[in-house]
Amino acid sequence: MDILLHICCGPCLIYPFSRLKERGFGIRGFYYNPNLYPAAEYLRRVEGLKILAKEFALEVEYPEFRDADFFQAVSAQKDYPERCCLCWSLRLRKTAQQAKAGGFAAFSTTLLVSPYQNHELLKQLGQAIGQEAGIDFYYEDFRPGFRRAQLEAKQKGIYRQKYCGCKYSLDSRRELKGEVKV
Fold this sequence. Notes:
Strand order of the largest sheet: 3-2-1-4-5
Shape: globular
Number of strands: 5
Oligomer: single chain
Radius of gyration: 16 Å
Strand content: 5-15%
């Protein structure tokens, strides 16, 4: 069965990729992350992902980076957790649409590996969006492999970010550290 896998970053790809391969999936990556801020962050994550994609012989689609998609989607709600829900919906919906158009049997996301995300909400969104798009959402709790994948990424020199990726999460991180907002 072929699956389109939304990829948020290289380190988060490692474990889901290995699990999906073990389960016999044909995998194609989809790197749609208009939430990333600043643009340099987007490019650093692309660079790390390309290293792993080459190692894994994984074909990855990189749609044009359009941060306006994110800011438009969350314009009415900039507070956590509502903002995150809108952001996940944006990225999962685009992945579901690409999967359906590309003839894939299902779609999923590497966001399911992170212990920092609202796992149940991600699962519910994926299933609802899949139903609305007419394609299966593949759910698996990838969190057990998170730490091992982070260690592997570190050993390989793959960039590991310190925040979710959006401007608002970066601002929150800087506030906690007493730094100035951008």
